[in-house]
Design brief:
single chain; alpha+beta; D-Maltodextrin-Binding Protein, domain 2; Dipeptide-binding Protein, domain 1; Dipeptide-binding Protein, domain 3; 3 domains; 8-stranded mixed beta sheet; 6-stranded mixed beta sheet
Length: 506
Amino acid sequence: MISITRRAFLGLSALPLAGLVGCGSSQESAATDTDTITCGMSQDIDSMDPAKAESAATRELLFNVYDGLVKPDTAGNLVPAVAKDFSMSPDGTVYSFTLRDGVKFHNGAAVTAEDVRYSIERYRDYTAGGSLVSAFAAVDHVQVVDDAHVDVVLKEPDTDFLAYCTIGITPAAVADLDADPVGCGPYKFSSRSPLEKVVLEKFDDYWDAEGAAHIPTVVFKITTNTDSIGMELAAGSLDLFYRLPETQLAQLPDGAFTVYEGGMNLVQALYVNNAVPPFDDVRVRQALAYAIDPQQIMDYVSGGKGTEVGSSMYPAFAKYFVPELNDVYNQDLDKARALLEEAGHKDGFAFTIQVSNAHPQHIETAQVLKEQLSAIGVSANIQQIEWSSWLSDVYTNKEYEGTVVGVDASALNAPSMLSRFASDAGNNFVNFSSPAYDEAYARARAAINDDEKTELYKECERILAEECACVYIQDLPSFVALAKRFTGYEYYPLYAQNIATIRPAE
């Protein structure tokens, strides 16, 4: 069993609401309506098919539609879902699942062992997916033992594999999940209007009575104009928004919302393309790290809140987080200038930071970075682009110099954060290449003993920090605004929005 304990700051805490904004009639008329909740999203989803889901926002929505063999809880444990029991062989090569009775898909069909086999083999064979899907390349075959038992046999030992089994079990009879997204989660798909909204309806036959949905209809509204989020909440056109910019908290009507504060569960950094000059020189990357001050960034972006990170692991993964890596590079402009001169850039250089216009915190971070880097003669041009363009140009095609973004974990294990830095990783969008890292990561993946594996993952983090794969900054704070007529919002130690926990306030 894999268990990753959350740090204390991830617990819920209600903040006092600041500022007064007049309540419009739309808010007043919605004040007693608890049959529908409208959740704001700053970007559109990329697919309704879990095999194609790339962005964290997509996975957050799909969390409500699909259930996996296991699922995460708020404490970071993996608990039974479609499978009521599971075990791993001593050598870490076979995962055995006992399926729960009475689980149904949204189309009314029973979930069978054959559906489980089909789903896992589909993920194994779907090569274009994100890290959740690419992990299934480790599967050799799936054995249906009987109607209630399935064995997943891996090509080699992998004691981290269970965490990937949160991905949705889907029916073998449905060929196109984008057009017909059928899962077995607490909410079923109703409709989608691209760039506008996705509507989900409560699934009355959900297997988990305790975790069943309480709100009949959920509307995920795409709100690309991030400057208007506070106003939309105030006007009543949004009931819930997660990752609300700190600057917009004052726009909320007094007493109309509960504001929760926690960690965003990501690693925000200046990600640079290690394969293009001058970032192919480690001294240049180190110079940038010495030039910045993460605390100054946190002060500007979120009123001093946030948690500094020094490598590609965020604090909610307390088992793997190494806080002393925050001090590998403390701001030292003289060291930064000396490294630039040593690398042949005495007079500095210019480069472009591409950042998604759907993420105001990253834009503001880029603005502070621009000022900080100018102190060592480095000129950063900020280019805002659409999120879809960021996914294609930066993430997929790697046609960029620098970007500010937050990288999150797709599963509750260390590889979900660290696998992308292996030289041959398909999602290594920073083009980091280090023989030392590849060796340490391979040893960590092969280790069976948990203590040894954990130390090797920490060694991977040290290499990322010392070789400055990225210019690490912080795990951003997450402010969640929920209309007072609802309650029950919960934080998870990874990107997940479980709308099933939300209910009408008494």
